[in-house]
Amino acid sequence: DQQVKQNSPSLSVQEGRISILNCDYTNSMFDYFLWYKKYPAEGPTFLISISSIKDKNEDGRFTVFLNKSAKHLSLHIVPSQPGDSAVYFCAASEVSGTYKYIFGTGTRLKVLA
Amino acid sequence: EPEVTQTPSHQVTQMGQEVILRCVPISNHLYFYWYRQILGQKVEFLVSFYNNEISEKSEIFDDQFSVERPDGSNFTLKIRSTKLEDSAMYFCASSLTGNSPLHFGNGTRLTVT
After folding, report:
1. HEC string of chain B?
2. What are the tens digits of pLDDT across the range B23-58?
3. Both ends of chain A: CA-CA distance in Å?
4. Chain A touched by B33 (CB under 8 Å)
5. Other Cβ atoms within 10 Å of B63 Cβ, number
6. Per residue in B74-113, pLDDT tens?
7. Searching chain B, which residue's CA lies closest to the CA of residue A41?
């Protein structure tokens, strides 16, 4: 039962261009969403989050967009840098009481210099 | 910046043996988690822990698994009788509240032979 899906296992982008990573969810009770970045041999690192009362949140080069009606969120990285090359996971939770985050399968981003 | 630390980084054990994976969460965090990632697959929730008891657990977290916070700083995951399919990266995480971002350690790679 994949409640959080990242349908693109990999993405390649030229340095300086925009990277767009997508995530879909099925559970309409999810109301808090996060993006994590993961390098090999390291744990996931928190990047940015958004709650369901917003449709956009921005932090530097990273912007997350949430479309609740489509149950879809995306992470935009502008401009992309070679150091952004990593696996990106989206995660979702219900704020009201379940202390767990459900992760997607990840998208491997490669930024080409 | 405070971080979650996990030991050991790599544990090799024989099938049927008990293993204990150790974690030191961020000191002022109150919620603790274990996740695992089988090679090439998604990050899976195992258990959350708050106020000295399990808050939620997944179907993976069966009677072979247990968690403990023995001394107010360490948070451990015990697998009583390991199976080959327990081989995975095990990540500990902590958060300040039940719906704030998780901070992950760098993981323990468990290999069951």
Report:
1. CCCCEEECCEEEECCCCCEEEEEECCCCCCEEEEEEECCCCCEEEEEEEECCEEEEECCCCCCCEEEECCCCCCEEEEECCCCHHHCEEEEEEEECCCCCCCEECCCEEEEEC
2. 999 999 999 999 999 988 889 999 999 999 999 999
3. 38
4. yes
5. 7
6. 999 999 999 999 999 999 999 998 878 999 999 999 999 9
7. B106
